[in-house]
Amino acid sequence: MGGPRIQVVQDADELGRAGADLVAGVFAATPAASVVVATGRTPMGLYAELAGCRRSGLADTTRITVYQLDEYLGLEPGDRRSLFGWMRRRFLEPLGITGERVVRLPLGGDLEGACAAFDRALEERGGLDLAILGLGPNGHLGFNEPPSDPWAPTRVVDLSPVTIVANASYWGEVADVPTRAVTMGMGQLLSARAIVLVVSGKSKREIAHRALEGPVGPGVPASFLQEAASGVTVIVDRAAWGNG
Ligand code: F6R
To answer: What is the pTM of this model?
Structure first.
């Protein structure tokens, strides 16, 4: 325990390198690690650095299994806004992870039952070794929007107006952002044996301090990282953290 380890780095480039080092270390210690990875802008440098480590033989991903963190509901196959498509282009393909080593979230049918089955299957396989997460503008992790309890399971969620505005910057405008999604639950994420939270940019400064130093509660889901039993490392750049 002892709370998150906060590693302050100079800028987004250093964040990518520091994050890739840490993740490569987890892969070296646990070659068959189960990992969940965020999309969003912040971890993209980390993924590019990690792909570089793989190319130069410093990271072995041949036995890694990757779980999907979150996805919008209601998209047709091939939709440009698919978060899975984003993860495929920026993480799975550069790291050579395919087939059965990719576990997707359920998106159709009896979603409640399928989400419960997803959580059961994850638990039966021993849970997550590593979660690579970004910090939402409202303190969300994945799409665990406020309020989210620390035991909240994988489930369907309505995206909050703040998240929809933030996601509009990925896809064009607010009207382009789906309003519902499936997210891996807080319970699954907080049980990961290691968690890396990456935070970059001045716009995250206030929420980063609230999440990591403010009161712990469902109103800022990321605040539960303060009490996570796992090893939590927060890699945050100067713009997001200030001088401490
Ligand atoms: C994306 C996700 C989100 C983002 C968060 C930060 O799969 O789960 O929780 O990590 O919204 O996004 P960026 O990094 O774009 O600021």
So the answer is: 0.98
